[in-house]
Amino acid sequence: MRWKSFSSKGLLGSHPSEYKISGLKRILKWITGAILVVLLLAFMAVFIAYWRSSNDCDRNTGTPANPMKAIRYCEYGSADVLKFEDVEKPVPNDNQVLIKVRAASLNAFDAYVIRDSWVGRLIFGLRKPRDTRLGQDVAGQVEAVGKNVTQFKPGDEVFGICRGALAEYACALERGLAMKPPNVTFEQAASIPLAGLTALQGLREGKIQPGQKVLINGATGGVGTFAVQITKSFGADVTAVCSTRNFDLVRSIGADHVIDYTKEDFTKSHQRYDVIFDNVCNHSFAERRRVLNPKGVCVVAGMGGAGAKGSEAIGRILGGFTARGLSSFTDQKFALYRTKMSKQDLIMLGDLIQAGKLRPVIERTYKLSDAADALRYLDKGHARGKVVITVE
Ligand SMILES: NC(=O)c1ccc[n+]([C@@H]2O[C@H](COP(=O)([O-])OP(=O)(O)OC[C@H]3O[C@@H](n4cnc5c(N)ncnc54)[C@H](OP(=O)(O)O)[C@@H]3O)[C@@H](O)[C@H]2O)c1
Asked: Going by CA atoms, what residue is nearest to atom 36 of ligand 1?
């Protein structure tokens, strides 16, 4: 009798399987609660980030105390959002160099940062662009240096990478600059940094060797024109992919063979390449593998320059990452890389130009006040070489 009451439901509780079910229910409740808390916190974080993301257009509405002319953008949009106006002249910190800008050049990146896209807003500011300065490639004269700067002094002629190059003055870190070679103009020097470094470092990723067959897709933009010439200077055999109107240009900078992408798809040819330097990323992993040698390398440099927009651009970026992932299962490698600032590489590019082995291709120059027109032109996606801004 006693035993019976102990073993009955009242004293010993539920059957083991009921225990399991109620345990599972508790875990599910806990997980649901945790997810709701995380979602609520994420929503609050986005809400706060959104309302706090203002920029200096909101903060500094008065007349600048020490004015200079500069290009800035207060909102996302097209080149129409660029304003040429008076802003406060920057003051270098202890590690910075103040440059009197003589020339700057535009890159596809400058077109990407001002665009109104959800990816852009996540990176550059949810509600408004946090940093309203534009331009990265700079060449000019050192005006002043911070107290920790040892390699430059006022009067030096320099070129390199900084924030806000589209201005009369800009501040750069010492490690972002190199001395401008004497017989290179400010316009030429300003055309080198990002495009030249991207070409040089990408070709290094491809480990190009003399005599190799190298195909450059997107050979006539800022990066492509440097890539063709650097590849040639390594003693490789260069095939350039471009549109009909650029045949003469790529031949003049050293391409051995030219493929017109408007008439022929290079991934359908019988030719095989040791290295593909891909500035466009408009072919699938399988298509590019087909024209790579068994141990070939495809360097994924970009997604077609300033002309690639919206879902096409996102598709190409995802295609690059997918190809990189899939290639870890094959002998043909797909390399993704991010251009790094390197003083050594800048000096090397400057020396190549000084020695006449590399010639920056500058298609157009615009005045600082016309920077919006310059960006409008680049944004069409068919610049031939670099678009340079001169600063009087
Ligand atoms: N990995 C990095 O860290 C890094 C750094 C800097 C830049 N990048 C990327 O490098 C890429 C190139 O930059 P960029 O400054 O050279 O751009 P760009 O000056 O705007 O040039 C784009 C070039 O692409 C060509 N092009 C467009 N569609 C093409 C197609 N279907 N087939 C072949 N060529 C085509 C155009 O030639 P046509 O006029 O003949 O069409 C144009 O010359 C960009 O996507 C940029 O984002 C990457």
From this structure: 382
Distance CA 323, CA 278 (A): 12
Pairing label, strands 213-217, 273-278:
parallel
Give the mean pLDDT of the chain: 91
Give the model's pLDDT for residue 104.
98
Ligand 1 pocket member 282 (CB < 6 A) = yes
Can you identify the CATH homologous superfamily of domain 64-192+362-390?
Medium-chain alcohol dehydrogenases, catalytic domain (3.90.180.10)
The atom number, within ligand 1, closest to the CA of 338 reads 3
Exposed/middle/buried for 118, CB within 10 Å: 0-12, 13-18, 19+? exposed
Per-residue pLDDT of 123-136, as tens digits, reads: 898 889 999 999 99
| Second CATH level (architecture) for the domain 195-336 | 3-Layer(aba) Sandwich (3.40)
Angle at 368 between CA 362 and CA 373, to 5 degrees: 70
What confidence tens digit (pLDDT) does each residue in 329-339 have? 999 999 999 99
Distance 323 CA to ligand 1 centre (A): 18
CB of 246 closer than 6 angstroms to any ligand 1 atom: yes
Is residue 3 scored above 50 in pLDDT?
no
